[in-house]
Amino acid sequence: MGEARADTGSVIGAGTQTIGNQALADGTAQSPQGTVSSYGADVGVGEADNITLATTNKISQTIATADADFSLKQQSGLYDDNIKGQFGYFDYLQHAYNSQVVGRFDGVGDFAVIPQRLIWTVRDDFGEASLDPFAAQTPDNLEYINIFSTGPQLNFRPGGVTYATVIAKYERAQYQTSPLNSNRILGDVELGVPLSPRSTLAFDVNTERTLFENTVVNSDFDLSSAYASYRLHGSRTEVSGKLGITRVDEQGVTSSGGLADIELDRKVSPATTVSFSAGRDLTDTLASFSNLQNGAIGGINTAQASVTSGVYTLSYAQLAWRFARERTTFNLSARWESDQYPTGRTAEVIGVTQSVTTETNASALDSSRRGGEFSVQERLTRVISAQLLGSYYEQEYPHAGFAITAGGTRYEDSRLGGSVIFRPGHALDIRVRYQHIDRVVAGVDSGTGYRDNVVFLTIGYRPRLETDSATAP
Asked: At 58, phi and psi to the nearest 5?
């Protein structure tokens, strides 16, 4: 259900997600061979005053942590790859939880079997998702998810400047706990006509078949789309848009809905960039997990709970603004999202407290989310930098309990934190980080909110390369 979970709990991401290392922006340089890379690692210790995110009877905990992150982009005539990873290990010294590793990995590689003609693509997305959408996001409320896909892409020009692309792909989804393991076969055909050296008009038809291992709590489905797309690559502006229709065949019932999407990236000035996107489409939890988006804070995203395998209508709009000068970086993002499930169908609820078949409409699973994030980073001296960040998200389930309990629930999650970074040398990185988390709950679960304060001291190895921006401490 939905996109990125930016209100991830207290200590789970304290070493990597919350008081942002902004690690993937550190130590970045581009070589003449077309390689861009970054990497870093930290060890440290922290303290949380409410490790279980409880409303009452709070338990403090000391946490030892080690984390690492990396990113790599390579381009050549034979292969292109783009990978990012960020992982953290947490050892709860008073044994409130077992030690655990959390993180996120997204990687895609394109390998030229026949250069410019036949490309083989391999992609993998790994991370965590919540199990119960109504419970605090503690280590006991997480599961690992891995989605692997691979297949060929054939490019050819049937005539003139017109081009055609044919894609076939196999995808495997593996869940640690939820009964959502599945195999998916996808196919796509795109015909395009360049309108100018910078713009292209294309027509796409794609289809996918999803087959679940557990068909007791899941229903196999077919999802197909047909749409026209437009792309413009300007010197300062990039625009892309889609308009079409999507059709789903699920539980023997066929339905369709409009598909619309627009993305705009504009370099307003040498220091300012604005991005906007909005859309509406039929999708499912697997696609949402693979396409998680970071907000202004960055870090490890944790997906929302996959309470059902059914297809739903996703409507969203998001805005991002970035200002970067020699010593100052400011990021701001906002997102609105609505997930609506089809009426007139039943849905099997999974991963909450038990498997329960809802005898009412699947629309009982509807939810909406809105909020935003900000981060400000300032280089105070040659070796000292400071960062302030915060977020606020409101998640609403109008039918909380998924027809098990009457009435709705609204969660308001806010976070405020900061860090001081000391870099006395080329690679040594010492950070003190603090964050405060606050959850307010209204509706059926009113009174189940919590507060938590976390502080960490970490020492890391993060080499600063010659082309590092002064805004990446």
From this structure: -70, 145
Query: Which strand (E) or helix (H) includes residue 459?
Result: strand 450-461
Would you give the distance in Å from CA 269 to the centre of its chain? 28
Model pTM score: 0.85
Residue range 219-232, pLDDT digits in tens: 899 999 999 999 99
Quote the pLDDT of residue 379.
Answer: 94
Q: 436: which 2 tokens? A: 């405060």
Tens digit of each residue's pLDDT (9 = 90 or more) over 337-388: 999 887 666 666 665 544 444 444 567 788 899 999 999 999 999 999 999 9
Which pLDDT belongs to residue 345? 64
Say if CB 24 and CB 38 are below 8 A apart. yes
Three-class HEC string of 187-200: EEEEEEEEEECCEE
pLDDT exceeding 90 applies to what percent of the chain? 60
For the chain, the distance separating the N- and C-terminal CA atoms, rounded to the nearest angstrom, is: 35
Length of the chain equals 473
Residues 418 and 386: beta-carbon distance below 8 Å: yes
| 287 membership: H or E segment, kind and range | helix 285-290
Main-chain phi, psi angles of 21, to 5 degrees: -65, -25
Q: What count of other Cβ atoms lies within 10 Å of the Cβ of residue 170?
A: 12
Q: Annotate 14-83 with DSSP letters as a single string.
A: IIIIITT--GGGTT-EE-TTSEEEEEEEEEEEEEES-TT--SSS---EEEEEEEEEEEEEEE-SSEEEEE
Distances (CA, A) of 260 to 225, 229, 240, 316: 11, 10, 11, 11
pLDDT in tens, 53-68: 998 889 999 999 999 9
**Nearest of 254, 156, 153, 161 to residue 200 by alpha carbon:** 161
CB 263 within 8 A of CB 241: yes
Asked if residue 415 lies in contact with residue 53, where contact means CB atoms within 8 angstroms, the answer is: no
Task: Give CA–CA dist 20/418, Å, rounded.
Answer: 8
Is the distance from CB of 212 to CB of 200 less than 8 angstroms? no
H/E element holding 290? Answer: helix 285-290
Determine the Cα–Cα distance for residues 69 and 39; give it in Å rounded to an integer: 6
Give all domains of the chain, ordered by start, each with its CATH number: 4-461 (2.40.170)
Residues 6 or more apart in contact with residue 230 via CB below 8 angstroms:
199, 200, 201, 202, 239, 240, 241
